[in-house]
Specification:
- By secondary structure, the chain is mainly alpha-helical.
- Helix content is about 80%, strand content about 0%.
- It is built from 14 helices and 4 strands.
- The strands form 2 sheets. It has a two-stranded antiparallel ribbon with strand order 1-4. Strands 2-3 form a two-stranded antiparallel sheet.
Length: about 325
């Protein structure tokens, strides 16, 4: 008979496999892209914006293919909240962040606008395939804009972005890393989805709440690891770019793909609580933009406190519902 402790163990094992699968895939891909002569600026910008979203992509597409769209939707909304509340907050607590990248001044209002767009598209109770295709078109436009804007950054900022693309390995090793990494992404995602769904059934809470909390925290591990290391190095642009870019990619690319695979029904509680909270965390970044792109320790503590309050509310809701 399955127990909660066993399922938590399976979930953690899946998260570890997923994490190292993402790391191996990215390392191999960066090496091959560099050898093919692709601009380090393009590679670095892609890593900052997309690299750490690999776990969400793998897990949520796997969930969508199984028809478990509640879990995928909860993971993406919860990950966006965790990216700002937990990851950006903790990074700022470790070291106040002074952002130089001009691109991020534009990306901040974009992440707010995209968050509001998702709420608007979900207001009829479903994110349809047409909605997904619309968001994918937005993703293509955003990617093109980001590349053009990155080319206009100062030389020091471009070097910082390009620094993410400096690791190279031999061609055979790179291909092996990609193959093993993709296998890890698939296997880790399958383990996490299985454990999450079974936990939801066993403890009697919805897949949405499991996705908003446990799964969202699990798939945010790469962002957390990357941001903590970057914060200690003083690479504020990488920290903030990682968080903002990941949030935009989670919605415009991953949620869009999930909706194209399987229309996503959206519960009333998500319309009135979860999505507005996600928007509120994005709006909380506005003072940062107005204060010259600086994230202080006090602001970091405020973001972390907001994340803990959200998790507390989800726990309370689960207990009341149970």
């Amino acid at each position: 008979m399955l127990t909660v402790s066993f399922l938590i163990g399976v979930f953690v094992a899946g998260a570890v496999v997923l994490y190292y699968g993402a790391e191996a895939t990215l390392l191999g891909a960066v090496s091959i892209a560099t050898r093919m002569g692709i601009s380090q600026l393009v590679i670095g910008l892609t890593l900052v914006a997309f690299g750490t979203s690999c776990p969400e992509l793998s897990l949520d597409v796997s969930a969508a293919l199984k028809g478990q769209t509640e879990l995928a939707f909860g993971d993406l909304v919860g990950s966006n909240i965790a990216n700002i509340g937990l990851i950006l907050g903790l990074a700022a607590v470790l070291c106040p962040l002074h952002v130089q990248m001009r691109l991020l001044r534009a990306e901040l209002p974009i992440v707010i606008a995209v968050s509001i767009l998702v709420l608007a598209l979900a207001w009829d109770g479903v994110i349809s395939r047409q909605d997904g295709l619309f968001m994918l078109a937005g993703f293509v436009l955003f990617t093109g804009y980001s590349y053009r804007a990155a080319r206009q950054e100062s030389r020091s900022v471009r070097r910082e972005i390009e620094g993410a693309a400096e690791v190279t390995t031999g061609n055979r090793k790179s291909l092996l890393l990609i193959v093993l990494g993709l296998a890890g992404l698939v296997a880790g995602a399958q383990l996490m989805v299985y454990a999450a769904v079974e936990m939801a059934r066993l403890i009697g809470v919805s897949e949405l709440i499991i996705g908003l909390t446990i799964v969202a925290l699990g798939t945010s591990l790469p962002e957390l690891a990357t941001s903590v290391v970057a914060a200690r190095r003083g690479d504020a642009d990488i920290v903030v770019g990682n968080v903002i870019g990941s949030n935009i990619f989670n919605l415009l690319l991953i949620l869009a793909l999930v909706a194209v695979i399987h229309p996503v029904p959206v519960e009333a509680r998500s319309l009135y609580i979860d999505l507005p909270v996600m928007i509120a965390f994005a709006v909380a970044l506005v003072p940062i933009m107005l204060r010259g792109m600086v994230v202080s320790r006090n602001e970091g503590l405020f973001l972390v406190a907001g994340m803990l309050a959200f998790l507390g509310w989800q726990l309370y809701s689960a207990i009341v519902a149970h």
